[in-house]
Amino acid sequence: MPETLPIRFIAIDDNPVDLMIIKEFSAAYPQLRHCGSFHAVGEALQALDEINPDLIFLDIELPGLSGIDLLRKIRNKVPIAVFITSHAEFALEGFELSAFDYILKPLTEERFAQNVRRIEEFWEMKQKANAYEVLFEQEMLIIKEGHTQIRLPQQDIIFLEAMQDYTKIVTGKKNYMTLTTLSAFLEKLPADRFLRVHRSYAVAKSRIKTLSAGKLVCDNYTIPIGKTYRSLLSNLNLLH
């Protein structure tokens, strides 16, 4: 990862063991800077004003105020919010509040590493430029990175990944970040070529190699299939 400013984070959980695990796992990543762990919402709110962190890890079940309500209160103050919780039933509500990720306990090193990789990529792109413009032409995307214009054939796209207000374009050679939501991005692409399979992913139909109930493989990438999209996919004959 190129040199960027460290990602300052705090963690909020009423379970001291879970806070210790987050702190321990994060120590393996020098780009993450731990700025505090908090058991109570009141302390965390005060810390948010004093520390102004870039990232928060928070639980759903907190004394006095739920993690959902807390994020609703502070979502304009923190660029990246990640839920780490035992409550799968609040995932949709969390993502509607622009949570960056939603991790179910028990937290594992592998799942934490996956989350950090996505945060790193998002943070690097965000630091390099506030916006990557994209124009849609027939069969082609025109991506503007500063003064540079890149002509990207739509057929080169393997999949798209939502990263809050950004969409990552993944190709076989290079990835690009655009300041466009995934939903808005898909509105400009031909529906017969691209298919949304998850809240955070859309794939090029021609790139699908294998398809199962919970995941599909596009080229060499494994993409999760969201529960709400499984019935739609089961009715489509996507494999040739």
Short summary:
By secondary structure, this protein is of the alpha/beta class.
Characterization of this structure:
The chain is of the alpha/beta class and 240 residues long. It is built from seven helices and 16 strands. The chain has helices at residues 16-26, 41-51, 67-74, 91-96, 109-128, 182-188, 227-234, and strands at residues 7-12, 32-38, 55-58, 80-85, 101-104, 133-137, 140-145, 148-153, 157-163, 166-171, 175-178, 194-198, 201-204, 208-211, 215-218, 221-224. The strands form four sheets. It has a five-stranded parallel sheet, with helices on both faces. The protein is globular, with a radius of gyration of 19 Å.
Number of strands: 16
Record the strand order, biggest sheet: 2-1-3-4-5
What structural class is derived from the secondary structure elements?
Answer: alpha/beta
Our count of domains comes out at 2
CATH architecture grouping of the largest domain: 3-Layer(aba) Sandwich
How many strands, which pairing sense, and closed or not: the largest β-sheet? 5 strands, parallel
What is the H-and-E element order?
Answer: EHEHEHEHEHEEEEEEHEEEEEH
What are the segments in which pLDDT stays under 50 over at least 5 consecutive residues? none
Oligomeric nature of the chains: single chain
Bin the helical content. 25-40%
Shape: globular
Strand content: 25-35%
Rg value: 19 Å
* N→C terminal distance: 38 Å
CATH fold group of the largest domain: Rossmann fold
